[in-house]
Design brief:
Strand order of the largest sheet: 1-2
Shape: globular
Number of strands: 6
Order of helices and strands: HHEEHHHHHHEHEHHHHHHEEHH
Largest sheet: 2 strands, antiparallel
Helix content: 55-70%
Structural class: mainly alpha
């Protein structure tokens, strides 16, 4: 296995090289400069996350919000208290990033570039922003912020599983109430022919119900595919990069000149960029061997941000393709999650101190982590995380392949 630093560098290059290439394929200079400014704010967010995380870790450890790494039980590392709720740092930085970018967005981006390049001299021109854009942006901010609060409350109060499943419903309310976009869907061509449906179907309240269900799924799906150093932050980083790449590919093409399509993808970029940056900053501390635990604060925040980016970017079907491992893990976990099969507090594999390897229990828990060990055999925690993240990356690539193969056929 490469060194810890080399693994993180390879992950960052694999995730960000594609988006970086397509960013420079965007022809519209205003769009290009807006995304570039967002990228600069996100880079600052990465640095801020790296700075803030040790501060948050010291505070949570001092308050007794900590735990022991059960995947290292029986070794000195397994007896060391690890700070929990470290996801509070990237979540706070993320919210600050998108607030800063909203402030920047009040000014015409071309005049802002000229003002900066001329040494902060000259007059800044204001940008006329649609009220609907500001409402959606602030509603997204409120939903994500609410989910950060609920996640931290869960870390402190240890909320039962069945209550956790519905928490995102309350966090999604600001987005649901303020949503000003369309509530119709393009009907796939095979269904048009088979069922005699029109090309466009107005769903009304059913679409808003779908928005809520997607928010609940995304938030909990990150939360239940967990328990291995680097897995929660790693899957979030990969999905954020996939969303970013999808948005930039669209903006670099013909759709980038269609305002109705462009604005949704731009909105998603503004969320995906800082999510990827802050998740990467968290991985610096959470990659194996982890010195912090991300906590439900991060998984709830990450899941809600992914859901909001997909909903307001209007590519929820593609998003579900990117989340194939999460969809499978949820369906596979249903018997335990709903009490049909005994569900322990921690659905983790067994660590063998003699070999340093993880193996499934004699009666393995029903999740993707244990299933991977059953299929490929015992391995180290680091190898297990890399295998699952490689599967995540492959599913994202499959999502792009399916979109390309079905273009013009499915819709």
């Amino acid at each position: 296995m490469p060194s810890r630093e080399a693994q993180l560098l390879l992950l960052a290059l694999a995730g960000l090289s594609g988006p970086a290439y397509f960013l420079f394929q965007i022809q519209d200079q205003k769009t290009f400069r807006s995304i570039l400014f967002s990228a600069l704010v996100s880079i600052a967010g990465f640095a801020a996350t790296k700075w803030l995380l040790p501060v948050v870790a010291r505070k949570t450890l001092a308050r007794g919000i900590c735990g022991k790494d059960l995947n290292k039980k029986g070794t000195p590392a397994g007896e060391t208290p690890i700070p929990e709720s470290a996801g509070l740092a990237p979540a706070a930085v993320f919210l600050l990033c998108i607030i800063c970018f909203e402030l920047i967005h009040y000014y015409d981006i071309n005049s802002l570039v000229h003002w900066v390049s001329s040494g902060f001299r000259g007059q800044l021109q204001l940008e006329l922003l649609p009220d609907s854009w500001l409402v959606d942006y602030n509603a997204a901010l409120a939903s994500i912020g609410f989910m950060v609060f609920l996640g931290f409350a869960d870390d402190v109060l240890d909320i039962p599983w069945r209550v956790k499943l519905v928490l995102p419903l309350f966090a999604a309310l600001p987005l649901l109430v303020a949503y000003s976009g369309g509530t119709g869907v393009a009907v796939p061509k095979p269904l048009q022919a088979a069922l005699g449906l029109p090309g466009f179907l107005e769903l009304g309240l059913l679409y808003k119900a779908y928005m809520v269900l997607l928010s609940i799924f995304c938030t909990n799906s990150i939360n239940i595919l967990a328990g291995v150093n680097g897995l929660e932050a790693g899957q979030t980083f990969i999905v954020a990069c996939a969303m970013l790449l999808h948005n930039l590919v669209t903006l670099a093409g013909h759709a980038g000149s269609v305002p109705e399509v462009r604005d949704g993808h731009l909105f998603s970029v503004y969320l995906s960029l800082p999510l990827a940056a802050t998740s990467l900053g968290l991985l610096v501390f959470n990659w194996y061997p982890s010195t912090v635990f991300v906590g439900d604060t991060f998984t709830y925040f990450a899941g809600m941000t992914i859901a909001v980016a997909g909903i307001l970017g209007h590519f929820s079907e593609t998003l579900l393709l990117f989340l194939i491992p999460q969809v499978f893990n949820f369906l596979y976990s249903v018997p335990q999650l709903f009490g049909l099969v005994f569900c322990p507090r921690h659905r983790l594999p067994v660590f063998d101190p003699a070999t340093g390897l993880l193996r499934p229990k004699d009666a393995p828990d029903w999740n993707l982590v244990n299933l991977t060990l059953q299929l490929f055999g015992p391995c180290s925690e680091n190898t297990l995380c890399v295998r699952i993240l490689a599967m995540q990356g492959a599913c994202c690539a499959l999502g792009f392949g399916v979109r390309w193969a079905l273009a013009g056929v499915y819709k």
